Amino acid sequence: MSYGIESVPVELDPNSQAQKPRHAEFSRPKFLKLSNDDVEKGRDHFTREILYPGNGATKEPLPWNAGYAEVINAGKSDKNEDQSWIFAGVMISESGSKQLRPSKEYMGTSLAKREDSIAVVMFGVCDGHAGWGAALYVSKVLAVRISERLEAIKHFLFKSIETGSELIYKSPDKAYAPGDVIPTEMQETITTENLVTGVLEECFRELDDEIRRSLSTYDITGGCTCLVVLFMLGKVYVANAGDCRAILVRKKKQGGYCFEELSQDHNPITDRQRVQSIAYLQPELLGQYYGRLELERRARKKDVEKNEDGKPTRLLFRDAYMRGWARRDVTEENVNKIPMVIGRDKRARLLSTIGTTRGFGDHDLTCQSGMYIKPFMTSGPEITVYRLTEREHTPDDVIILASDGLWECLTNKEAVDSVSGTLAKFLVDDPMRYIQTAVELVRKARGESTARSWRTPNDEFASMDDISCFVIPVHQHMRAPKTLTSTAATAKRGADCSDFIDINAQVINFQTSNNSSEDLSQASDMNILIEFESSVQSLPVDESNV
Amino acid sequence: MSYGIESVPVELDPNSQAQKPRHAEFSRPKFLKLSNDDVEKGRDHFTREILYPGNGATKEPLPWNAGYAEVINAGKSDKNEDQSWIFAGVMISESGSKQLRPSKEYMGTSLAKREDSIAVVMFGVCDGHAGWGAALYVSKVLAVRISERLEAIKHFLFKSIETGSELIYKSPDKAYAPGDVIPTEMQETITTENLVTGVLEECFRELDDEIRRSLSTYDITGGCTCLVVLFMLGKVYVANAGDCRAILVRKKKQGGYCFEELSQDHNPITDRQRVQSIAYLQPELLGQYYGRLELERRARKKDVEKNEDGKPTRLLFRDAYMRGWARRDVTEENVNKIPMVIGRDKRARLLSTIGTTRGFGDHDLTCQSGMYIKPFMTSGPEITVYRLTEREHTPDDVIILASDGLWECLTNKEAVDSVSGTLAKFLVDDPMRYIQTAVELVRKARGESTARSWRTPNDEFASMDDISCFVIPVHQHMRAPKTLTSTAATAKRGADCSDFIDINAQVINFQTSNNSSEDLSQASDMNILIEFESSVQSLPVDESNV
Questions:
Q1: Average pLDDT over residues A384-400
Q2: Is B526 on the interface with A (CB under 8 A)?
Q3: How far apart are CA A90 and CA A510, in angstroms?
Q4: pLDDT the model gives residue A423
Q5: Residue A14 forms contact with B (CB below 8 Å)
Q6: Fewer Cβ in 10 A, N or C end of chain A?
Q7: Burial of A412 by CB count in 10 Å (0-12 exposed, 13-18 middle, 19+ buried)?
Q8: What is the per-residue pLDDT across A109-152, written as a single tens digit (0 to 9) for each?
Q9: Which A residues 447-506 touch B at CB under 8 Å?
Q10: For residues B284-302, average pLDDT
Q11: Tens digit of pLDDT for each residue in A24-48?
């Protein structure tokens, strides 16, 4: 489990509770191309109709024919608080951009052959809670922030293609003799993979801060978890903050399927040591009702008072630094404290309030006793990197990326079985192959409506939560996504438009015009063309509150 | 990397700098049975003679014929600041103790057949720095503290043997329906393995606190890292705080050797995120000269001032929450700060001072600018558990447990090659087999003295540090160590002595007489017979300072 850490002072605008405009109208993912009728159907908590790209008004495939499906919750919130997004773009090298005039045909060929462009494809799922504001905001902005930061390091990336080495900095390979002075300058080895990892780590944290600052201007309700799967240069970077999950499902050569987890869930159980560590170092954050320790049972006043043997009761406990359990005398400070982590599995809660421990938003969230919860949460993601090029992948290898609504009802193994079963029913080039695989996963987790509740085929509780699920085939990862129409963007850029991809999702062209590749301080001034929803494009941040 | 954490207020007795008696006389491990001549030879920094059990005055094998060798440093400190220790004992069940009268023969047979006794064997290496006091203290006391705490949980351990289940607590297996109240009582599953892990975690931290408190009475110099390998009930528990290392070397069925790391080194590089996290949450601990961030180079005043483009310089940095690297504007607070972690590999230093980040002691250690270093260090160990019973082990499978003096010159692979080479030269029952394997490892790391310095066969710098190395065969793990004489202890216990093992190391008999197995609050009052060096046995703690 990564460090992540948190506990920044909660500095909210005193006017943050005042009535403010929404930062955007509620919507479902643009790439679904839903008609108004579809949107209405998808809002029904009783029928819980499954939405997918194929049942939208316009049938346009997702990148690599990726599959997707979603369903609303069974009534726990009015809106579907999950938000999914796709991003596809191409970075053009400084030198390449001068000559490059790619045609549509080019965009369909392998980018691996080209040294002057790098395809970037991202899939993301945000799972909102206590409102849909944060999830919508993150789904519209995070990819742009990531693309901006990738643009700022692209000369390193192109250089690594040119030189065939990912190394961008290596500490001097010197054998120190005893007595040598220790150098205070950096002694690290840095690769392009470290830089991309750093881009994701910084973007998550900066965007969360952006949300906090925006609260003085806009109503951005609740919080959200977020998982991003980024394909670039033969690698998959998975950045996770929360309890969405991505697994790689792979067909074995000898038959049968296996899987690898590409992320670890962050919840009060898995992230316990991090949240306890923060309370260990800043105990005042817990207030008077909560206690840092897990205890085998609630400690009572009489446990401290002398027992028959004249000694206090000893209880099993677990502290921040422990994976094991030990016994300790009950003291006054343990008495009647509610453990900061309670509950089991999906019912585990931090400060009796929230079931996830990482993500965006929640800046004003308090527990019943009035203490802020945000200092224990972090937007710091855990990054895993999977090297696609180390193995041959077939059209039967997919990444499942889904919100916890899916995973609370399906084990990884059950999801794999479902995927393999559906994939077998379709030809590899059927445009509905991965969509139906996603639909089937969602259907299994949602179950069917019965007189009592939503039940699985085994008559267990099915998921009452929002469910969102991508099924992404990975064998085409070195191909740029298929290009489609690009009227809007071309119109804006006019004759300067040298490269563009529109996959009916969020769209960006990475090419910059006057940006020296050496001068990273200019990154924020890049002339990036973003074809974006106007509600986000026009979102100002109140600088007085920065 | 485990959380560990730290930053307790440094509360030292104001008189701690006053002249106080040593807590014990300097000595080498008792199990070496060194004559005064041997001790003198071992102190010579110029010849650096290798000491091992076989060259001692008395030839008595270690448990399971384990191997051991040590050598002093090349002059960096007057004394050998490493301290190694062995502990062997048997826990007797409450019910069993009433009837059990084990003979010497019994002690040589497999304990796996007996349900009323549990063999406990520990090997430990402490690597001292800035004095030998802490290492000696820990080597004499830690095993006793661990055995006391094991005694306090033994009824769980015996119950697990009886029932065949390691489970001691299981949360109710209830399917929660949406809307159910979240229980605030413990919802965990706890096994005996969790308890033993907790014993080790607590003992490390408590002993470090014991050392801090003892400083008002005794002169306990410096600090030490520590690694404990504990064999019990078919498992190996490895508890590590610092940069000693244990690896399991295993001969493959198809020939050749492989290895598994049983511990992870803790140094300013591997433990960077933990120490940065503490500075992140308690920045005042760094003082004015140190900075939390790693930066690609020292930030200067002119980096903050406007560059030609009117903006500050952007430098690569890495913060507590990052595994990757990103760029950030240089700000005033970065200027001229020394990174809290500097240097590379074995030369990495925390606050320019210390090369390890976990261990015991160092309570009064400050860096040059006067800031305490202890708040960034932790005695919290990282525990790994290896299940010996999941695999068949042969006499060619060993655990190498050594101080960093060995590992700074030998890679794991080189150590494995050395081990396999030496083992092949001896019959499996040769009493010198594992000893010579340890000697050969130490010889390779120490190298040979040349005109210039100690050099390896490849003419590279050899280890100038103290080196201590156990080579422990694991195939006999279910056998109690061979029993030898037990005069001293028998004499003390008289007719009550029902069970005893003396392996010429530190010795303890776990049996208690009047202790209810249910009443753990009595644990500290146990009637434990400890045959111990008097210097430790009589060590009082100044209670006024507790």
A1: 94
A2: no
A3: 6
A4: 97
A5: no
A6: C
A7: middle
A8: 344 345 577 888 899 999 999 999 999 999 999 998 999 899 89
A9: 453, 460-461, 464
A10: 92
A11: 899 999 888 888 888 888 999 999 9
- How high does pLDDT run on average in chain B? 80
Strand partners, A197: none
In B179-241, which ranges are continuous DSSP H helix? 192-214
pLDDT at B91: 81
Can you tell me the mean pLDDT for A77-98?
82
Q: What is the rounded distance in angstroms from the CA atom of residue A92 to the CA atom of residue A155?
A: 10
Identify all chain B residues contacting A348, using CB atoms and an 8 Å cutoff: 187
Interface with chain B: mutation pick from A6, A276, A316, A318, highest number of B CBs within 10 Å: A316
Q: Which of B194, B195, B344 to mutate to test the interface with A (most CBs of A within 10 A)?
A: B344
Q: Which one of B1, B2, B5 would you mutate to disrupt binding with A, by most A Cβ within 10 Å of its Cβ?
A: B5
The residue-averaged pLDDT of B202-206 equals: 96
Average pLDDT over residues A10-37: 80
- Alpha-carbon distance of B343 to A458, in angstroms, equals 59
- The C-alpha atoms of residue B227 and residue B56 are separated, in whole angstroms, by 24
Kindly list the residues from chain A whose CB atom is less than 8 angstroms away from the CB atom of residue B320.
3, 5
Closest Cα to residue A468, out of A260, A245, A267?
A245
Strand partners, B315: B328
Backbone angles phi, psi at A24, to 5 degrees: -165, 160
Query: Are B342 and A183 within 8 A, CB to CB?
Result: yes
Predicted confidence band at A443 (pLDDT cuts at 50, 70, 90)?
very high
User: How many other C-beta atoms are found inside a 10 Å radius of the C-beta of residue A447?
Assistant: 22
B126 beta partners: B83, B226
- The reported pLDDT for the residue numbered B17 is 63
Rounded to whole angstroms, how far apart are CA atoms A284 and A277? 13
- CB within 8 Å: B342 and A177: no
Q: Rounded distance, CA A405 to CA A401, Å?
A: 11
**Closest to B182 (Cβ–Cβ): which among A177, A318, A342?**
A342
User: CB-CB: which of B325, B352, B522 is closest to A198?
Assistant: B325
Give CA angle at A447 (A446, A453), nearest 5°: 95
Does the beta-carbon distance from A2 to B321 stay under 8 Å?
yes
CA-to-CA distance for B440 and B427, rounded, in angstroms?
16
User: What is the rounded CA–CA span in Å between residue A224 and residue A358?
Assistant: 8
Q: Using alpha carbons only, what angle is made at residue B181 by residues B177 and B186, rounded to the nearest 5 degrees?
A: 105
pLDDT over 60 at A496, yes or no = no
Tens of pLDDT along B418-459?
A: 999 999 999 998 989 999 999 999 999 999 998 878 998 888
What is the torsion angle, in degrees rounded to the nearest 10, for the CA atoms of residue A268, residue A272, residue A278 and residue A282?
A: 90
Mean pLDDT for B279-288 is 93
Percent residues over pLDDT 70 in chain B: 77
Q: Which residue of A has its CA nearest to B169?
A: A296
Contacts of A187 (CB under 8 A, 6+ apart): A171, A172, B342, B343, B344, B345, B347, B348
Instruction: Tell me the C-alpha to C-alpha distance, in Å, between residue A369 and each of A342, A344, B179, B460.
Output: 15, 22, 21, 63
- Across the interface, which of A190, A316, A344 has its CB nearest the CB of B187? A344
Complex ipTM:
0.82
Q: How confident is the model at residue B501 (pLDDT cuts 50, 70, 90)?
A: very low
Determine what percent of chain A falls in helix, strand and coil, rounding each to the nearest 5.
30, 25, 45
The pLDDT value recorded for residue A517 is 31
**Residues whose CB falls within 8 Å of the CB of residue A259, separated by 6 or more in sequence, listed in order:** A247, A248, A249, A250, A412, A413, A415, A416
Cβ pair A135, A126 in contact under 8 A: yes
